[in-house]
């Protein structure tokens, strides 16, 4: 079976760890710590190294790595993206102040690898979520035939996560 390394990148609290946990057939390795800066988010923990899970999808053995959201751990982004076959950038649709940060993450990744990727908008079920068009604009993705697929995904729902991974696996550059 073909092994495919998939990286889940994205902004702080976008839902990367939740995504890996929903996708995985095995117990997920999570390396998190308590958030010291509580103002960052309402949540208590943040990823400080990576998450790891596995899923067999369409006869492919997906190894799924979640990255930390905070840029002080960007040495982990570097380590994880270098071996990636594909990646997803998760962006929380209800946090517009994170959009320019999402753009920076995208630049970071695309400077290191040229692999297929998609944009997954999370928190679309939350109040004040912005539209895919507004988000694409803010993170600098032109709406053309060459642009990466932009989808809505809810990391809390396994079927939604698997659908996102199916789009990723079938997307070519
Ligand atoms: N309602 C809703 N909640 C979401 C969605 N995506 C993620 N969440 C919630 O957002 C919170 C943060 O999720 P995490 O998975 O810890 O986020 P993360 O991206 O790993 O965060 P860092 O590791 O700190 O960068 C969790 O409580 C999730 O349940 C979504 O689409 N809708
Ligand atoms: Mg995390």
Automatic annotation (TrEMBL):
Keywords for this protein: GTP-binding, Nucleotide-binding
Top-rank taxon, per record: Bacteria
CDD domains: Ras_like_GTPase (cd00882)
Keyword Protease: no
InterPro entries for this protein: Gliding_Motility_GTPase, P-loop_NTPase, Small_GTPase_ARF/SAR
GO MF, one example: GTPase activity
Pfam families documented for this protein: Arf (PF00025)
The keyword Transmembrane is annotated on this UniProt entry: no
PANTHER family: ATP/GTP-BINDING PROTEIN-RELATED, GLIDING MOTILITY PROTEIN MGLA
Name this protein carries in UniProt: ATP/GTP-binding protein
Organism listed in the record: Limnofasciculus baicalensis BBK-W-15
């Amino acid at each position: 079976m073909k092994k495919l390394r998939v990286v889940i990148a994205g902004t702080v609290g976008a839902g990367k760890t939740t995504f890996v946990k929903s996708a995985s057939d095995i117990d997920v390795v999570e390396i998190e710590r308590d958030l010291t800066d509580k103002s960052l988010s309402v949540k208590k923990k943040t990823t400080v190294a990576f998450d790891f899970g596995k899923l067999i999808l369409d006869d492919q053995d997906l190894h799924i790595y979640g990255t930390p959201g905070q840029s002080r751990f960007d040495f982990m982004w570097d380590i994880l993206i270098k071996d990636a076959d594909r990646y997803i950038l998760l962006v929380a649709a209800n946090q517009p102040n994170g959009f320019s940060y999402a753009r920076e993450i995208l630049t970071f990744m695309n400077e290191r690898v040229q692999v297929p990727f998609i944009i997954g908008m999370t928190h679309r079920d939350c109040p004040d979520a912005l539209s895919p068009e507004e988000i694409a604009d803010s993170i600098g993705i032109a709406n053309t035939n060459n642009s990466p697929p932009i989808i809505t995904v809810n990391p809390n729902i396994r079927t939604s996560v698997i659908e996102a991974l199916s789009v990723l696996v079938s997307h070519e550059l």
